Amino acid sequence: MLRLLHRQDVLAEVEDLRGYARTILRNLHRRRSGLGREDTVETLPEEPCAPEVFPVLALQELFEVLEAMPPEQSSLLRLVMEGETSPRDIACRTGLPEGTVMSRLARARAHLRREMGLGPRDRVADLY
Questions:
Q1: Contacts (Cβ under 8 Å, ≥6 apart) of 24
Q2: Which pLDDT score, from 0 to 100, does residue 97 have?
Q3: Do 62 and 116 meet the contact criterion of CB atoms below 8 Å apart?
């Protein structure tokens, strides 16, 4: 991420930021593991490991959005994340009417989609 920040002047020209970041990570890995430019394709691992940075960043963004969300919505989403999937069970657990639970969850999912830059048809990990 620091390398991306140091290269802000060229980021405006980059069409695929995720691919660009992967290339930076791959090159950094190659340099640190002793693989140089003189290495051929045969000396590289057959299946390179995919960087785990993007799922971690997505989770970090998710938790930041949850923290900024109204408490009545984030608390219900946290229950869903813990495994409560039935609006009826959540309503019994919280003492809220089932319709209120469903409405707040719908608003919370819409808020997550909007804040995370997802479209209306994208699913946010089945948060129901």
A1: 3, 4
A2: 96
A3: yes
